[in-house]
Design a protein that fits this description.
The complex is a heterodimer. Chain A is α+β, with helices and mostly antiparallel strands. Chain A contains six helices and nine strands. In chain A, helix 2 links the parallel strand 1 and strand 2. The longest helix of chain B is centred in the middle third of the chain and has 16 residues. In chain B, 27% of the residues lie in helices and 29% in strands. The chains are: A alpha+beta, B alpha+beta. Chains A and B meet through loops of A and helix 1 of B.
């Protein structure tokens, strides 16, 4: 979490409900502890000054996130977290102001385009989901070559069914080539409880947890214990 | 030496500029129907210390490529000048 993050507790709650033992890590940390997976939550890291994610990529924790990603660790960036991953060069392209210049806060229909990623592994391609979107800079852009490479390599994770923001090729989420780093604009953590109208986000986060290798079961348990108490 | 630097961050040609387009659409209603090709960017002013102008320019270019502009959608135009002109005899008041 960064100064200005505001979805970290939602993410931690949702992952906790799904059986994980989430731990919040402040952006000045130079270690991820024994983390098996990393989630960069939504919000407005460093106030979104200059551009969303532009300053967050210089936070000390990003060096260890970069190493973790390079070693194959699962990394998920949600909304502002996606913007940070793009600015940090962990994912290609960037996110621009919505085409209609409106802040959009609405449920959005998306379709799973590829299940090569840690977020969608095991989910049938073509599955439709309804997830909340909540962004001003959510229009994904990249050069034409990158866009066709993303599609050809199965790196487009989710596409909007009806493009809300002008994203190139209706892209709602992408992964790196290896599939272990994923960024998406919709908020799966806000669709994990029947009270919130959709459980479709839980399907994604469950897949994310299932795709996460647990390095040290005992340590994981003791951390979970610490957090519960 | 200190240099006064102006960095203009501009959207690359071909990148949609919803702010510029919205502004341009609203101008005729204000009587400015003679204005077109409106593009909105950022202007950033800063002061760079360097031994000479070339080095100040290079440092600013590095700054732009690392943080001030995102090369996926923006470029940066840099103009700089010495912050304080050295005093010269006969300088008009």
């Amino acid at each position: 979490m960064f100064p200005g993050s505001n979805c970290e507790h939602d993410v931690a709650y949702a992952l906790g409900e799904l059986g994980a033992a989430p731990k919040l890590i402040w952006h000045t940390s130079k270690s991820l502890g024994h983390a098996d997976a990393v989630v960069l939550p939504g919000g407005f890291a460093h106030g979104d000054y200059l551009r969303p994610g532009a300053l967050a990529r210089f936070s000390p924790v990003m060096d260890v996130v970069r190493e973790f990603a390079a070693s194959g660790g699962p990394v998920l960036g949600i909304c502002n977290g996606f913007q940070i991953l793009c600015e940090a060069g962990l994912l290609p392209g960037t996110l621009q102001k919505n085409r209609n210049l409106r802040f959009i806060c609405a449920p959005a229909g998306v379709r799973v385009d590829s299940n090569r990623s840690v977020l969608t592994s095991g989910i049938d391609e073509g599955t439709s989901l309804v997830l909340p979107i909540n962004h001003f800079d959510g229009s994904y852009i990249c050069d034409a070559r990158t866009a066709s490479e993303l599609s050809e390599t199965g790196s487009v994770v989710l596409r909007y069914i009806e493009n809300p923001n002008g994203s190139i090729d209706d892209i709602a989420g992408i992964s790196n080539l290896q599939g272990n780093v994923v960024g998406l604009m919709p908020h799966p953590e806000r669709a994990c409880d029947p009270l919130l109208g959709s459980l479709d986000g839980a399907a994604l986060l469950t897949a994310f947890l299932a795709a996460t290798p647990i390095k040290d079961e005992t340590d994981h348990e003791s951390q979970a214990e610490k957090i519960r108490s | 030496m200190k240099f006064s630097v102006l960095v203009e961050v501009r959207l690359l040609p071909g990148i949609a500029d919803p702010q510029g387009a919205t502004l341009e659409r609203s101008l005729p209603a204000l009587g400015f129907d003679d204005v077109e090709q409106v593009r909105v960017g950022k202007a950033i002013r800063l002061v760079v210390s360097a031994t000479d102008e070339q080095i100040a320019l290079e440092r600013t270019r590095e700054l732009c490529s690392q943080v001030l502009a995102n090369p996926v959608m923006e470029d940066a135009r840099i103009t700089l000048q010495p912050l304080s002109q050295p005093e010269t005899a006969g300088n008009p008041a």
